[in-house]
Description:
seven-stranded antiparallel beta sheet; alpha+beta; conserved putative lor/sdh protein from methanococcus maripaludis s2 fold; CATH 2.40.50.100; Elongation Factor Tu (Ef-tu), domain 3; about 25% helix; 4 domains; about 350 residues; elongated
Amino acid sequence: xxxxxxxxxxxxxxxxxxxxxxxxxxxxxxxxxxxxxxxxxxxxxxxxxxxxxxxxxxxxxxxxxxxxxxxxxxxxxxxxxxxxxxxxxxxxxxxxxxxxxxxxxxxxxxxxxxxxxxxxxxxxxxxxxxxxxxxxxxxxxxxxxxxxxxxxxxxxxxxxxxxxxxxxxxxxxxxxxxxxxxxxxxxxxxxxxxxxxxxxxxxxxxxxxxxxxxxxxxxxxxxxxxxxxxxxxxxxxxxxxxxxxxxxxxxxxxxxxxxxxxxxxxxxxxxxxxxxxxxxxxxxxxxxxxxxxxxxxxxxxxxxxxxxxxxxxxxxxxxxxxxxxxxxxxxxxxxxxxxxxxxxxxxxxxxxxx
Length: 354
């Protein structure tokens, strides 16, 4: 039994010696992955919540008064520009125009005879001026009554939807009183509020677009309309954009959106590195800088300006373009440590067979 135990002990010692012989000597050597800091000249972006509004929500009214003959579209109906919306009984206005038209024809004929006689020297200048004045007066009256008859028909000023009807047929309406409320369907407005820190750099704004929660994955371009010059009670400035309808997407007023503003960073020297290279050093953002001449690393504090959806961090200080940073395996490293860089995969040597 003692011989067996002695043999097992010797075998264990021999196996441990073999393992120690195969172990790497450089215990402080760690393999890391590095990435080169690239100069970032692309646009940065900011995002704000907003809301879609109807481009114009207008109340349509008659210019003349009278009993309503008909109100054609129902609430919620779509109407085209120029389509008849409502009509006032034209009877009284037709009679008025007919009487004025007869008077106009009579005065016009008399005035033309007087003006012809004046050119021949047959009447005085005073009679000529009276004829000219009388013709202008009856012409204005005739046009006014002709317009009044035309104004008994209320038509849609744009393509849109009837939102509300305030009167129905057989009711009498006064001039200027709303009869129908319409929403413009040709485009929409989008409004957001921005702080003064973004208001002062509005000259750097380059592009605008939004996403709508109910249409995931779709991007809608925006056109800037205006920015208010006075802040509201919350010290925010209102921006208004124009959103044109997209075919096949039923956008409606009242929907919530997220507006993205792309802007140029100005004179700042920005670089982009993988977000995985940034680590927390007692509350400070830091990276490991790799020195290829000494194969060692050094800690350096950085300031992150923005994190992109692509997984990159945009730095405004701490790293210069062209410097190498440790992009993977950042934890557990120490200042001045010697490291081995993981070789990059070759696009022509797939699988490392060559």
